[in-house]
Design goal:
It is a single chain. Helix content is about 30%, strand content about 10%. It has helices at about 10-15, 40-45, 55-60; strands at about 15, 20-25, 50.
Length: about 60
């Protein structure tokens, strides 16, 4: 069986935790920040875990994580 290629775009966006879960950054933090509240922007800084429904697809995209 040939080697599998990692999707580089996904590899840059996701990290694996010690327990094997995928960690991601939240969206909507790059521009148009003036209308967003300070609280909302502060919460967008924190990393989030990928949803369980997407995990199967993510393991396919990132075979060597």
């Amino acid at each position: 069986m040939p080697k599998l290629k990692t999707k580089r775009a996904a590899a840059k966006r996701f990290k694996v935790t010690g327990t094997g879960k995928l960690k991601r950054n939240k969206a909507n933090k790059s521009h148009i920040l003036t209308k967003k509240t300070t609280k909302r922007k502060r919460n967008l800084r924190k990393a989030a875990m990928t949803d369980k429904t997407n995990e199967k697809n993510m393991k396919k995209i990132l075979p060597y994580l």
